[in-house]
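Predict structure. Chain length: 239.
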Amino acid sequence: MSEQTTLQPKVPEPLGPGDLVLSDFDGTISLVDTGVEMITRLGLREAWELEERWRCGEIGSRECLAGQWALVRMPEQELLDLLDAMPLDETFVEFVNLCRRRRTDLAVLSDGLDLYVNRMLARLGLRACPGRVPLPPLSECLPAFANHGEWTPQGVRVTFPLTRQDCEACGNCKRAHLEALRPGHRRVIYIGDGYSDMCAAQYADMRFARNHLADFCDEQGLDYRPFACFTDVAAALRG
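Prediction complete.
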């Protein structure tokens, strides 16, 4: 085997009380990055330029997101119709139910917008609620930490109520949420796929990764379990 082969950790302990599961949204629960898919479908060249500058580290996530979504100018219903066409991993519902049965805390961390995160989770029959510390029980709602998006005739206006002032990398600092939520939990399990997951994933006790996050874990020598859908995550943690 080469050194880049996925590092396989030992068989994990079954999911249970005291565990904290944090999941990315775009590219993880949603099967595509919603923002990238939106600018691709609309052919927004200027928005793609912002995306490339962000990926290269020239600008931060806040500047990128605000600039991209300001270019999305269309009637509100057309925007909602586009969002409703985005594919989702429907097996996430199975995983949420497993967490409920095992009395495990679960939260969604997204550097996207609540404008679509909450709506798309509702398509799965899940009621999202704003994330807070301590987390509300899953029997009440699914906590989601995300940037705020608001439709206006001049474009989607984005604000960043959960930003970390000493870090320009992300609009919504996932590491900060992990650190705030960790106390009282025996284990933090992180699930993600992309650039905005890289910082937080380093501080988790267990990782499920694919795509860019998996590449990052390989480069950094971090152990993780690859997954195709949440059925894989549930199978690994069911015990």
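Summary: DSSP finds ten helices and eight strands in the chain.
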